[in-house]
Amino acid sequence: MNTVIELLNSHRSIRKFTNQPIEQSLIHRLVQAGQAAATSSFIQACTVIQINDGTKRAQLAEWAGNQTYVNEAPIFLVFCADMNRHKLSCDMNQAEMLSGFTEQFITATVDCALFAQNVAIAAESEGLGIVYIGGIRNKIDLVSDALDLPELVYPVFGMCLGYPDQDPEVKPRLPLEVVLKQDSYTATEDEQHIRDYDRQVKEYYISRTNGQKEMTWSEQISGMLQKEARPHMLSFLKKRGFLQK
Predict the structure, then answer these.
(1) What gap in Å lies between CA 122 and CA 104, rounded to an integer?
(2) What residues make up the domain containing 143?
(3) Using an 8 Å Cβ cutoff, are 243 and 234 in contact?
(4) C-alpha distances in Å from residue 234, one per residue of 47, 62, 86, 224
């Protein structure tokens, strides 16, 4: 196995960090690595906001569901899907921008995710640990106002970065047979594969929590999908100029 694939397969979410500072020059290199990601039609629709202000950090940690590591990590970045600069580009060329299309929302969001994953991989290659923070969407209006985000920009997720102060196990992923299909979507054996995977995940949680958590993957997913999933997002995105048509 080559070192890149080995690095990818060793990913863990890190939520405890040492006090070792991270040079700003390294952050610049990581963001530049993010910029090197694939981008749909060269739109380059991601903006990254580094949060240094202590008050804002504390607010973001609270709004994200009291995730203390948002405040404690040496570096916290917010990745935003950004179509605002595209409006500026149209204005610069005396062209009317036709915005609000669902496809634009999808491509901007995908661009942002690809950018961020490049940052994550680059960070881990430098010995850093990361954890994504989707919880900033819990209070997305407040987050957007705190970051002065204009129309056609929304915060997709945050990312904590720092040198790890923990060494968690790698969380097992779904069997390859469930994920990789040939020529068409066939799921005749998926249930059995998932049942086998459930046993593996349950063992992982028992080991990780010293027996305090005994949950399978399918139990976790079925429980999660019985709850509303941030129903405020649609009205927020429409208000921001996305998903109009």
Answers:
(1) 27
(2) 3-168
(3) yes
(4) 21, 22, 22, 19
For residue 141, pLDDT over 90 is answered with: yes
For residue 117, the domain's CATH number is 3.40.109.10
Burial class (CB in 10 A: 0-12, 13-18, 19+), 190: middle
82: CB partners within 8 A, 6+ apart: 45, 46, 47, 108, 112, 152, 153
Query: Is residue 163 pLDDT above 80, yes or no?
Result: yes
- Phi-psi region at 29: left, alpha or beta (left = phi > 0; alpha = psi -120 to 50): alpha
Whether pLDDT at 169 is above 80: yes
The stretch 56-75 carries a mean pLDDT of 97
With 0.90 as the threshold, say if the pTM is over it.
yes
DSSP structure class, residue 83: -
